Amino acid sequence: MEKVGTVFRGHPELEPTGKLSLLGEECCSAERMRAYVSRRNPNAPDVAELYLKWGNRYGIRGDVAYCQVVYETRGWTKPISGPYWWPITLAQWMEEATIEAHMQILYSLASDLPLPETLVKAKIQTALIERSGWQGSVHCWEDLNGKWAGPGYHRYGQDIVSLWRSMTEWKGEGEVDMNRSSGEEQDRGQFDTARGRNRGPKGSAYGVEQMKWLQEQQLLPFPAPQPDRNVTWAELAALLRSWDNRSSIAALEEKKISS
Q1: Same domain, yes or no, for 111 and 233?
Q2: Within the chain, which residues score under 50 in pLDDT?
Q3: Residue 121: helix, strand or coil by DSSP?
Q4: pTM value?
Q5: Domain that holds residue 243
Q6: Peptide bond into 151 cis (omega under 30)
Q7: C-alpha–C-alpha distance, residues 223 and 197, integer Å
Q8: Strands 88-89 and 80-81, how do they pair?
């Protein structure tokens, strides 16, 4: 008898519990993030790239962290927000130093591994997390309930994930940008704290290069998936069928020309 796991493929972004993991790769591009929020607040600050940049460095889903701030600030309108142990003004949320500190706090909640001392910006907050016994206890966004949000607030993490899912499924403008330079990929791939390894520029640049080739061959679906996302057997079959159809058409055209 086959194991269940070999028959039913789990959702690539979900833990076995059905929750969304806090650590991981982003699913949305900065273009999509900006466009999604701007439709509600045209004056929202342009910090999407910073959330992806620092999220990638610490292994946090930067697009979900961005949704967390959008939720906290009520669409970049609330003067002061954040947990009771880290109140932040609206202007501070827009600063790159605060965004990095935000990622460090999320990393401390999600990982048992300590941050390098030279990197820590949110020292008071990460120390509080350690004293509270929360370090490494928040594996999913839904687990922020009772920690980031106050006791009794049982929908905080779920609301953030709901906002993120709405953004990923939005049919408006802003898709994955397949034309990002390899230099940008190199900057984003240097340090991967959450996975405990150095990803390096070569792997990232290689993935982007292959995705560009697929795009040039018109073999990518729309919107284009992230290079690191797992491919299902159905998606692989569709890609191979497209390639086979193109080969057949090319052979017929060549035969017509030769005859």
Answers
A1: no
A2: 1-11, 174-204, 222-223
A3: coil
A4: 0.62
A5: 229-259
A6: no
A7: 30
A8: antiparallel
